[in-house]
Amino acid sequence: MRCVGVVVACAMLAWTVHATCLPTDPGFPDACARSLPFDGLERRYIAVHPAVACPNPPAVVLVHGGSQSMRKVLAPGATTSRWIELSQEFGFVVLVPNGIDTNSPEPGTGLGDFTNGDAQTWNDLRPGADGRRSREDDAGFINAVVAEAIAMDGVDPERVYVTGSSNGGMMAYRMLVEHGERFAAGAAFIANLPEDPIVQPTAPSGVLIMNGDADEFMPWRGGAVAGAGDPVRSTPATLGYWLGANGLDNTLGRTTVLADPEMDGCSVVESLYPAAPGGPPVVGLYRLVGGGHQVPGPAFEGENVPSPVFGIKCRDIAGIDVAWWFLRRFPELPQVVDSNADGVADAFDLGIALGRAAAGDVNALDIDCTGAYDAADVERFAAWVTDPRPR
Q: Do the bridges between strand 231-232 and strand 254-257 make them parallel or antiparallel, or are there none, so unpaired?
């Protein structure tokens, strides 16, 4: 890794003292920008570290959409910037790799950097006949980012997750299909699998899908992406692939029509598929009825909702919060918040932890690993107790 300069967030953390950072746009003061030589190119990514974290924290790989960038998905006003807030609340690292701008005039010049370049794409599972996307080894690059974070930041290799939207969501699928042993679970927004045949995943993993059924770019019923791109399967067929890959019985699915408080032209149907009756979900589908090509979540000040281009943004559900609620269950909840290992953090676990603390286990309630049980731990525990899933 080649770096110049230092960002305060990196220097603050004892477990990242050997990871220096490149200068970033002033809008990203807490980001650690890194340059990573890979496959003959100087690729870039951003790492966001929590102010307080336990040793060997989890990591979420956030893959931007097509014609987007690592900068755009973290920018104020982006729905996906919510990942930064959750990383501080739950103590995980966010890794944001940058794709390739295929419209760059010369090979190797479309990498983007930390102050410009916002038209990046990914080499997802589609064959690339439409010529719209990167043809680089992006899967290898993302794996290299994860490997570097494990080595530099002490990330727990058993708790690495991947998420993305649109082209980034399809790239997240690719990572789960071809490198399932690397990722505990993934969450894809407004993304379907390609129409062409694909192999079975290298390992089973939890998968969350969140798609709008009125999306004119990523069609719910399948077909050409944005009217002319390489075709994709329907969302039901995409769901069927992941149910089969995980050996799940679709008759065990629990489908619920969620409340519709926003009256925004969109409603949400939740379908969760456990491995056994009554168990936590292994695969989930959120159908955004009337939803367009947008990650669901609250509207930001000044946001044009609905978008004349991308359609309705479903505001009845906080999509990023739901994704983290789903992902963090894999491979299992940390014992410090799920003492009885039933897949749920609740009052029973708090009672067990209090009993352990009373018996002299000083770590029983030290959720943030500061060496003391205090108000911050109470807040952290409350943040974990989110069953049923957040709205």
A: unpaired
